[in-house]
Write a structure and sequence with these properties.
Layout (H helix, E strand, L loop, with lengths): L1 E2 L9 H33 L2 H28 L2 H24 L5 H29 L5 H29 L2 H20 L5 E2 L9 H16 L2 H22 L1 H8 L4 H25 L5 H21 L5 H29 L5 H30 L1 H20 L2 H4 L9 E2 L2 E2 L2 E3 L1
Antiparallel strand pairs: 1-5, 2-5, 3-4
Helix pairs in contact: 1-2, 1-4, 1-5, 1-6, 2-4, 2-7, 2-13, 3-4, 3-6, 4-12, 4-13, 5-10, 5-12, 8-13, 8-14, 10-12, 11-12, 11-14, 13-14
Amino acid sequence: MMSVTIDERSNWKRPFFIIWIGQAFSIVGSILVQFALVWWLTRETGSATVLATATIFSMLPGIFIGPFSGALVDRWNRKTIMLVADSLIALMTAGLVLVFWMGQAQVWHVLVVMLVRALGGTFHFPAMQASTSLMVPEKHLSRVAGLNQALNGVLNIAAPPLGAFLMSLLPIYQVLAIDIVTAAIAVGTLAFIHIPQPKRRPEGVLTPQALWGDVREGFRYLAHWPGMLILLGMATLVNLLMSPAFSLMPLMITRVFKGEAMHLGVMNSAEGLGVILGGLALSVWGGFKRKVHTSMAGLVGMGLGVILLGSAPAQMFGVALLGIGIAGFMNPITNGPLFALLQAKIAPEMQGRVFNLVGALASAASPLGLMLAAPVADYLGIRFWFWIAGVSCLVMAGVALSIPAVVHLEDVSGAPRSEGRSALAVQD
């Protein structure tokens, strides 16, 4: 065991980006699988209920299992967790490949695989995020977050058309098999890279009571950081209002702009292009000195973009494209610094729990927001919800910047890491 300062690791880029590239391949495979399975369900059933069920299956693990899997991430070796999660997801996909190849695939097969893949994600995501904070110097965390946002933007634009193209050329089991190859790349790049582990107190036997105690400890940890708790509460509220707005985008296209599927595709591309450019801008710029200032500036910009989108005249579709492009650009400016702040200020041995608690709140907010948005949009018009979502961003940014505990969150004494030093103990 040894104490290290991450800034002293002159070669941190090589091991981190080897893993990062491997995970990028894995994400490509995951998006292709998701596209292929959703399209198969659509083609085979034509049922909105089945598609809604598939969405729920993909969200349930994050809501109900996330807090507990986060506690396990903080107990176990994070590299091992990522290896097992990637391997398990690939194994489930391989089973589905076999079922499709035999011509025996049924809806429940697909739903079970989607559930297990989502379950694997509840372990993999916090393990990767927590590992990033142990491999990347704090001053570069915002840039890495920007790269992650840009990568997601690129893949969200490129992968669905690629999936559609592959589905037109290949049987579905061959498309699914691509995910096995990309998972193998991710596992191969990860297997030979050392990932530091946080110093942990001696853990007793893992029992349900001990696991629940770990989860409660995560809640208590956040409760003792008022600024962090307030910031996460605001982020959850914004997500509750913003997520339905983008889910209602198809109705915005048809009801307001009298558009077709092509218009929706162009709208999604404009958003994705904005995310790419915003992520690249953040990776080069790095943000303001205070991450909270960067994030709130992004939130204001995102709110203005959504308001512009909701206010675009029916005959001026280009204005709507500009609005969603601005919102997309500001998305990584908003979220990237928040992730960097969590990675920099949350104790390494607590990050698994905290990241999954945040994820559980976000996942739970989305369906609740949809339940609220649907009747509001039907009664008051689809534009009204976009205005609500946009104004909420402006209000939340103003409130956050008026609360000293939030503004000075990075100044909290005893933070796990600060520039140029570390009290972090890692295990080989």
